Structure prediction request, 106 residues.
Amino acid sequence: MSQIVTDDNFNTVVLQSAVPVLVDFWAAWCGPCRQISPIVDELSQEMGDKILVCKCDVDEATEIPARYMIRSIPTLLFFKNGELVHKIVGATNKQTIEEKLKSLLN
Prediction:
């Protein structure tokens, strides 16, 4: 299950995570966001506690999307040890996301 991140809890949840983190920046009105959401949820279940999957609603949180210059959604940010290491902008396929996540586990 994905964890919701906001401006208030982002630093604690994402940047201080002991495991790699995928943050899905999305909005309810965004068609491509709804398209990749099931893929992100599926990967969250498949990879279990090896990774943390979070969702950030850009209509609710404004500080975090601005900090990471999120200009279009969906945007997926991949963090390891509190550092941004990968970024995918736009809808993509499961294999691409999975490869990025697996690269964080090495």
